[in-house]
Design brief:
Radius of gyration: 23 Å
Structural class: alpha+beta
Membrane topology: Lipid-anchor
Family: Belongs to the bacterial solute-binding protein 5 family.
Mean pLDDT: 92
Signal peptide: 1-19
Keywords: Signal, Transport
Subcellular location: Cell membrane
Number of helices: 16
């Protein structure tokens, strides 16, 4: 099994799961009357990358998909899967067979009914090697999924079957305790084959080349535009529960811009940074969120040979004062990392201890410039390098640039190290990271559900997201046993995940930086947002504007 999570850049944690990790919702008071104008104006810190669930990899894309599409379940305000297209579910065969009865009144925006075959087609398309879906591995719990994805078995061998129009059967390779939570994630939603066939490779690249079965329809998106609208979907089966007529979204890379728009009453929400947070923390509109996403510095061993040396990697880590970064630079409530897996990703089933506390490797996230210099000298002597001139690739958002400048300054305190910052648009950075086209990069990961495996398998040797070149047979073995051998032994499984995190950090396979807080101003008359800190963050289905 591979990685379960979502890419996020330093400022894109606008962000994304599916899990009972502090999921929360705005309180909805039934005594409030709805405002005459049910229109929400929202800001995003990055452009929309894709409206194709098989191609999406980032938080914003999945947020749009969650609001414009629908699957078997939707997460409620407590992060618990609740029936959506499924009306009932039966689990048999020791947890390996799921039988779903589907509602018969769901339609696509092109007028076609949503049926069981739409799920079969969607899952087969995602796993089809020709689709090249980076997230296909999420489906590997389904029988024959991995073999299908690797071209060793036909699509028809996949363990999903439509028993008539409104009955769906799924066969798993093993019991998966969090499977229902995965089913609430957009990757597992259905697709309308007629629309995909009609638009071909253009499907999901613009609002006009996508069909919808969720609460809203994506409109006014060209594929590159920095504004778009989520309009109420008149063909949605549960449209009576949807109050907003439209959500107008606008990309503002700078919080200065979005903050000014908010104060001018042109938006209903804005992310905050630094001084803005200090100025507004007592406001009735202030909301602080701590999603389960971590920010890190990745070193590409395939591009810089010196990064193959563990002492060089450890030196870079020890040169960065994470506490200074979050307190003096970001100043937004972000928390210095204790490891790669952030807080909120689960607790020891026996002792109750939080994972990030139990797996904490102090030296792997500490600041010690003297030791860093010593280790670098030792490492460069081993590699034969006299100096390191490296490029740090980052996105063009405020927080990303602030972090990059701090990291640059920190690393250049090491003798014979020169760091050049390369700033590119967010979508471009994702592409470069996916292709391994970087030397150093600021990368982020947001969970899909609250379990440590959701982070750890990013760094499995054959993970599509592990582009650094770091590999560890011990790390791979621990994850493989935890998922495929100890699924019904929660304490043993937990122990192996803790060991795996320690292997990753002791070897400095990546350099964790911080868990990003997302403080925002949100108009107090905006009610009913369902927010999930451990996955796709915003579900606007039940949102409304109060008078």
């Amino acid at each position: 099994m591979k990685k379960k999570g979502t890419i996020l850049t330093i400022a894109t944690l606008s962000l994304l799961t599916l899990a009972g990790c502090g999921s929360q919702s705005s309180s909805s008071n039934s005594s409030n009357k709805y405002a005459a104008k049910q229109e929400l104006n929202w800001t995003e810190s990055s452009e929309l990358a894709s409206s194709d669930l098989a191609k999406a990899t980032d938080t914003l894309s999945f947020t749009v998909l969650q609001n414009t599409q629908e699957g078997l379940y939707r997460l409620n305000s407590k992060g618990t899967p609740a029936n959506a297209l499924a009306t009932s579910t039966k689990v048999t065969n020791g947890g390996k067979t799921y039988t779903f009865n589907l509602r018969k009144n769901a339609k696509w925006s092109n007028g076609e009914p949503v049926t069981a075959k739409d799920f079969v087609y969607s899952w087969q398309r995602t796993l089809d090697p020709k689709t090249a879906s980076q997230d296909a591995f999420y489906l590997y719990q389904v029988k024959n999924a991995e073999a299908v994805n690797k071209g060793k078995q036909p699509l028809s061998a996949l363990g999903i079957k439509a028993d008539g129009k409104y009955k769906l059967t799924v066969q798993l390779t093993k019991p998966v305790s969090y499977f229902k939570k995965l089913l609430a994630w957009p990757l597992f939603y259905p697709l309308n084959q007629k629309a995909v066939d009609q638009y071909g490779k253009k499907y999901g690249t613009s609002s006009a080349t996508t069909v919808y079965n969720g609460p809203f329809r994506l409109t006014k998106w060209s594929g590159t535009s920095k504004t778009w609208t989520l309009a109420k979907n008149k063909t949605y089966w549960d449209k009576k529960a949807v109050h907003l007529t439209k959500i107008n979204e606008q990309v503002t890379e700078s919080t200065t811009t979005s903050y000014n728009l908010y104060n001018a009453k042109k938006t209903d929400e804005t992310l905050l940074s630094g001084q803005q947070i200090k100025n507004n923390k007592n406001s009735k509109d202030f909301v602080k969120r701590l999603p389960t996403g971590s920010q890190r510095l990745d070193l590409n061993q395939k591009k810089v040979a010196a990064f193959k040396n563990a002492d060089v990697r450890k030196a870079f880590s020890l040169a960065i004062d994470r506490t200074q970064l979050v307190n003096d630079v970001l100043q937004d409530g972000s928390v210095a990392s204790k490891g790669f897996v952030p807080a909120g990703m689960g607790n020891n089933p026996k002792t109750g201890e939080a994972f990030n506390q139990e797996a904490y490797v102090k030296e792997g996230v500490s600041y010690n410039l003297k030791q860093a210099k010593s280790l670098l000298a030792k490492g460069l002597k081993q590699t034969g390098d006299k100096q390191l001139n490296v490029t740090l690739s980052v996105s063009d958002t405020d927080t990303s640039k602030q972090t990059a400048e701090f990291v640059q300054s920190s690393l250049e305190k090491l003798p014979n190290v020169k760091v050049t910052i390369k700033t590119v648009p967010y979508i471009q950075l994702i592409t470069q990271q996916n292709n391994g086209n970087y030397e150093l990069t600021l990368a982020g990961w947001q969970s899909v559900f609250a379990d440590p495996i959701n982070f750890l398998d990013v760094f499995e040797s054959d993970s599509s997201y592990n582009t650094t070149g770091w590999k560890s047979a011990q790390f791979d073995k621990l994850l493989d046993e935890a998922e495929n051998q100890d699924g019904n032994k929660p304490t043993t499984r937990w122990s192996k995940l803790v060991q795996a995190e320690k292997v990753l950090i002791n070897d400095q396979g990546t350099i964790p930086l911080y868990q990003a807080a997302k403080s925002q101003l949100l108009r107090s008359n905006v009610k009913g947002i369902v927010y999930n800190g451990a996955g796709v963050p915003y579900d606007f289905k039940t949102t409304y504007i109060a008078q």
